[in-house]
Each structure stands twice: as C-alpha cells, then as structure tokens.
Amino acid sequence: MKFFTQKDRLTAAIQDVLKAVATRTTIPILTGIKIEADKAGIKLTASDSDISIESFIPAEEEDKENAEIIEPGAIVLPARFFSEIVRKLPESVIDLEVVDHFKTIIRSGNIEYNLNGLDAEEYPRLPKISEDGAFTLPADLLKTLIRQTVFAVSTSETRPILTGVNWKIENNQLTAVATDSHRLAMKKVPLNSSSGGDKVYNIVIPGKSLNELVKILDDSRDQVEIVITGNHILFKAKNMLFLSRLLEGNYPDTSRLIPTDSKTVVKLDAKEYYGAVDRASLLAREAKNNVIKFSTVDQNTVEISSYTPEVGKVVEKIRSLSMEGEDIKISFNALYMMDALRAADGTELTIYFTGAMRPFVIKTDDDDSLVQLLLPVRTF
Amino acid sequence: MKFFTQKDRLTAAIQDVLKAVATRTTIPILTGIKIEADKAGIKLTASDSDISIESFIPAEEEDKENAEIIEPGAIVLPARFFSEIVRKLPESVIDLEVVDHFKTIIRSGNIEYNLNGLDAEEYPRLPKISEDGAFTLPADLLKTLIRQTVFAVSTSETRPILTGVNWKIENNQLTAVATDSHRLAMKKVPLNSSSGGDKVYNIVIPGKSLNELVKILDDSRDQVEIVITGNHILFKAKNMLFLSRLLEGNYPDTSRLIPTDSKTVVKLDAKEYYGAVDRASLLAREAKNNVIKFSTVDQNTVEISSYTPEVGKVVEKIRSLSMEGEDIKISFNALYMMDALRAADGTELTIYFTGAMRPFVIKTDDDDSLVQLLLPVRTF
C-alpha cells in the first residue's frame, strides 16, 4: 500500500474513528486503526466491539484531489501513535507506505516515521448490515434528539436496560425515551413514509454510543440514513459509518408514568430560573442529594431555597410569568433540574405539578415534542 | 460588619487569595477566607501555613467607589462556598452583613444567602515582616524570572532543598537557580543600589509558592517590593501581599557545574527544533525515559531521531543555522529539552556541547541572562 493524502483530511478522519478505538481490550489489534486504500480513496476503521466507526476520504471530491493512491492495500497502525504523529506533522502532504512485514513508513517533508503495523487480515470483520429497513433524519435533528434525551439514561448497571435510550418507531413517528427512574426525557420526532416512517421498531441504543455519535455528526441538514437489524443500528452519514450494538431486553413502558392532568401550572423565564436553581444548589451540594425547594409565593413570585444546617441557607425570589391552580411547595434534585433545563432550548418553560409527592412535567415554549419528568424528593 | 461592594472587585480579590486556601489541613479555620472591613476598604486573607495571600479592595480608588463600609468588622467564611456564591450572583452590587453569632448574610437583588461564619479572632496571625531589607523588581520581569527557572525544580522530596529555587543577591545582581540534578536553569537579573541591589541574600523559595505567585501577578511594569526575613519572603504588589515561607538548608553550589569551554557549537531555529524534538519524543514516550538522539550530519544539517523497538523509529533532518567544532552524537530526555525551550523566549538558540557524556548548555538569541544546562543520557 502506498498513498499521498492531505494532512487535514487524514487528521479529521482519524479524529472521527478515534472515538471507537478500544482502550482496554482483550483483542490487542482493536487498539489500532485499520487503514485501507483503493482507487476510490482511503478508509479508516476503528472498533471497540460495542461501537465501530468508518471514515472515508474519497480520492477525489468535487474536483478536489484529497488523496493519490499509488498502490492499494491495507494495514493496521497503533491508534495513539498514528493519530499523534499525523497531528504533529508540519507539512500539508503526507506520504504513507507499507513496506515489508507490515512496517509502515510515514513521510512528510524531512521527517520519516517507521511504525510497526499489524496485518489487516487479522482485524475483526464488522457485521454486515443489509440496506433494508432504512429511514432517514437530518443530521442536526438527530443531534438534537440525542442531546435532549441521552443525559437522562441511568449510569448504574443495576438495571442495564436503563443505560440506553429507547427508540420506538410507529405511525410515522419516532419516540425517544430515557430514564434513570428519578427523571425521564421523552422526545417525539415526526417521520414520513418516504423517509421510512411506516416501519415499526422498538429498540434500546446504549447511551454511550449515542454520546459518541453526537460528537462526530456535523450540524448540517444532510440526511443520515439509519438501518436497524436484530442486534445493531447503523448510522450512515456523508463519508462516515457509525455502527452500534443494541441493548437486549425489554424497555419498561413509561407512557403511563407521565401525568395527564395537573393541579398547578407555573410559567417561568428559563434563564432566570436556571440561575436561581444553580445558586440554590451551591449549598445543597454539601448534602448528598442536592435537594432544593420550590414554593409558589403569590401569582407573580416563586421562591427557590435550600437549607444545609452545617453551611447555611439561601432564599431567592424570581418572577413567575403566570401561575394557575393551587399553591405548591415541592423539593427536588437541583442537578437533575439543571440537566433538564440545559436539554430544553427555549426562553420560557412551563412546569405542571400534580402535588408535592407526585412526579411533575417540564415543557419549554409550549413545545410538546419534548416532555421531561422529574420525581420530587421527600423532605420532612 | 456590613458593607456594599462591586461584584467584579470582590470576585477578583477572592480569586487572588483562593490560591492560598488550605485544602487539607489540621486547622479547619484555614479552609476559610478572612474578611476584614474598615473605612479604608475590605481586606481578604487566606493561608495554608506555607503561603499566605492578602488582597485589598480600597473603598475609593482614583475617584471610583469600590466599596461602602457601613460598619467595620471581621469574619471568616468557608472559601469554597463564598467564592462560588459571589461568582454566581447576577447583580453587580453585593451586600455583606454579619449578624449574630457569626451568621453572615450575603444579599444581591432578590437573593439572600445566610452562611455560617467563624470568629475572625480565631484566625492565625500572619508573621509580622519588618520593612527593612526591601528591594524591588517590575512585576513582568519578576514573572519572567520565575517562569524561566521554576520548571526545573525537583518534584521529589528525596532532597527537599531542590524543590525550591535558589535566589542569590549580591553585587547588584539577582541570580535565580533551579535544578533537579538532571537539568538546571539559571537566570540573572541586574538590580541597582536604589532598588536594593546592595543587599546580600542567599535564600531558597519553594517552587510551589513561586508557581502560585506567578499566577496572580499581572504583566505590568509596576514595581513589586520584596522583603526577605530569616524564614519568609514577602512580595508586595498593588493591593496584594504574598507571603511564603523559605526552605531551610544550604543550596548546593551549582556554579562549577556549568562548563565554560565547548567543543561543538550549533545554532538552530528555535521553533523548528522544538517541533522536531516534540515529534521524535512521540515514540520515545513509550520507553520510560523519553530519550531522543541529536546528531550533527554536516555543517548545515542536524538529525533528530528516536528508536523504540516495540513501536518503531523516527528520523528528522533540520537545518542548523551554523555549526562550529567537532561532530557530535548525543542523547537526552526530550521532555527536559522541551521544558528548556519553552522557558526560553527567542527565535534562535545555541547549544554548546563539550562531548557526548558531558552536560551541555543552551542559550537563546545570544542572551547570557538565561543559561540552561541539560545532562545527556547514556545509550548503548
């Protein structure tokens, strides 16, 4: 194998696949990046068994030459060294050549690296995914969907299924739900039949996979093709493939957890409220559960407070933009509330309470596509 | 005690003293910040026994009102909470009031914090420093002096005296030396009699203290007054006092370590050379001592290389701007070389070798005020 390529393109492709490189593994070759070159271009692959990423550098693209393939072939190079070497090379053109016994020469200007590679034939094959069952979403919407739900997954392995995000596709709608049993985030996205909305799926994607995917997707309106098989989900973006295994097991039915009625409805300025929760949580962090208190004072005022005997207390009054129904005093985890507020874009938010001991619902800007649920904390 | 003050001034003063707040201590009150107010202004103090910092907010300064003191007094507040609270308050004016039993109310807009304070009388007194024996240096020169030497102190406690920087003042000159016995940095700064250069001192300042001091000094030409007593050194800048204990013991005589003759003199472009050392060190980091090899090739070329059997090798040729004397092949620790190059400002550097087994000297831009010494590593 021998090719020339642009440093910036190679660096970007390495950065994409690097997120899937195994750090602790019983399969040493997975700590490497597989590099394949043929006349179409250069393909990089990395995998940690859970996630696999492929990034492709087309030899030519829109009349621009990204790479010149002198001799096709394949090699596996140690990911950490390969990425640091390429990043630190000063010239814009890099020459990579495999010589005998998987020895690989990387040249740029007056610099010559000689790296010990591994046989690409030894690299595990990725599962073959059929093209059937594809639907599509624009990259930016997919990113929003992930960002607004994945933070609520459980980090505890006691119920492994809750470490993933549940995606249900039916009736031209994708519903994504994540919960750690203290809070829940649910996002609905319309699909149409031409983009595959007539299919029916019910899958659970590991939160970790989605957190990595969101980092390498760009914020474009480009369509991402999504293919679901029995055990895997494949995301196909421009010059990039992202494959994740799915979690096995049944995701709990969360639909009946979300209250449909409410006794108190309070509308707040999102930024002002976030600031008050953040400030009240400062003292609450000393105690173990970050509990702060939310109390309606009158039609126009809400009080956010917290009290930690060893440290002190804080009381802040903020405006309520509107308030309907009964007065309420309720306590909850400030960090969960801040996560919920960060996930929701929008300048106004509405909280629907059904009593101090019942879960409550948060929506922003009267947008029903994102519903968040928080459980109160009992304080005595 | 009760006062009003500007949030930005209070935040800046807290940030200054925060670096001296004790994190692990047997004296719990040292995890707090002492706040004193009198008609002149507000003084904050923090100390971890090794370092003490005072920051002062003058009530009035250049016709600007920074603080209004309603009632003088003093209190000690928990540093972490106090700093986070002040930083997160949304309004520009903060009102602080001590009520009964050291309870302290911090108000800003519609927010009221109630913090449990401690009796300021219980806070340890800082050592009294007489004004005698002061000399002065501009803040920016003091920062350069520290930055160019402190990186070379030892991090090992096997010879505690080497964890400090040796300052010798005599004959209108300050000489600062740091060494961990593998490398050495020596900086000379001229003093004049009016700025205290006629005094004679030989002290060792803990590297940790200097690292903190350099963070809070600004880059101005303002004079910093320096007072040395038997056990302490005091730095007095505008509205700020920084006190450090000194290390006890005799600093080794390093003057005879620096070779006065040389057999090979090589002049290099500093940036080009740094890049080559950095790139060669990539592979060397896998081995334990980061060793790379420097070889003169001809009058105009130097080769930087490294070889780690498990990973591979790298060879880079760079220009030498000039070369005099014998050819040389020498090995050294790449990270020490990079530290030395970062400390030295300048576009050209000259290395004076006296043989492959002898320490060698690095200077930049023919500037004799900074001399760096590196020990070679034997490779076979």
Automatic annotation (TrEMBL), chains A, B:
<dbReference type="InterPro" id="IPR022635">
    <property type="entry name" value="DNA_polIII_beta_C"/>
</dbReference>
<dbReference type="InterPro" id="IPR046938">
    <property type="entry name" value="DNA_clamp_sf"/>
</dbReference>
<dbReference type="GO" id="GO:0005737">
    <property type="term" value="C:cytoplasm"/>
</dbReference>
<keyword id="KW-0548">Nucleotidyltransferase</keyword>
<dbReference type="Pfam" id="PF02768">
    <property type="entry name" value="DNA_pol3_beta_3"/>
</dbReference>
<dbReference type="InterPro" id="IPR022637">
    <property type="entry name" value="DNA_polIII_beta_cen"/>
</dbReference>
<dbReference type="Pfam" id="PF02767">
    <property type="entry name" value="DNA_pol3_beta_2"/>
</dbReference>
<dbReference type="GO" id="GO:0003677">
    <property type="term" value="F:DNA binding"/>
</dbReference>
<feature type="domain" description="DNA polymerase III beta sliding clamp central">
    <location>
        <begin position="137"/>
        <end position="253"/>
    </location>
</feature>
<keyword id="KW-0235">DNA replication</keyword>
<feature type="domain" description="DNA polymerase III beta sliding clamp N-terminal">
    <location>
        <begin position="1"/>
        <end position="127"/>
    </location>
</feature>
<keyword id="KW-0239">DNA-directed DNA polymerase</keyword>
<protein>
    <recommendedName>
        <fullName>Beta sliding clamp</fullName>
    </recommendedName>
</protein>
<dbReference type="GO" id="GO:0003887">
    <property type="term" value="F:DNA-directed DNA polymerase activity"/>
</dbReference>
<comment type="subunit">
    <text>Forms a ring-shaped head-to-tail homodimer around DNA.</text>
</comment>
<comment type="similarity">
    <text>Belongs to the beta sliding clamp family.</text>
</comment>
<dbReference type="GO" id="GO:0008408">
    <property type="term" value="F:3'-5' exonuclease activity"/>
</dbReference>
<keyword id="KW-0808">Transferase</keyword>
<keyword id="KW-0238">DNA-binding</keyword>
<keyword id="KW-0963">Cytoplasm</keyword>
<dbReference type="Pfam" id="PF00712">
    <property type="entry name" value="DNA_pol3_beta"/>
</dbReference>
<comment type="function">
    <text>Confers DNA tethering and processivity to DNA polymerases and other proteins. Acts as a clamp, forming a ring around DNA (a reaction catalyzed by the clamp-loading complex) which diffuses in an ATP-independent manner freely and bidirectionally along dsDNA. Initially characterized for its ability to contact the catalytic subunit of DNA polymerase III (Pol III), a complex, multichain enzyme responsible for most of the replicative synthesis in bacteria; Pol III exhibits 3'-5' exonuclease proofreading activity.</text>
</comment>
<dbReference type="InterPro" id="IPR022634">
    <property type="entry name" value="DNA_polIII_beta_N"/>
</dbReference>
<dbReference type="InterPro" id="IPR001001">
    <property type="entry name" value="DNA_polIII_beta"/>
</dbReference>
<dbReference type="GO" id="GO:0009360">
    <property type="term" value="C:DNA polymerase III complex"/>
</dbReference>
<feature type="domain" description="DNA polymerase III beta sliding clamp C-terminal">
    <location>
        <begin position="256"/>
        <end position="378"/>
    </location>
</feature>
<dbReference type="GO" id="GO:0006271">
    <property type="term" value="P:DNA strand elongation involved in DNA replication"/>
</dbReference>
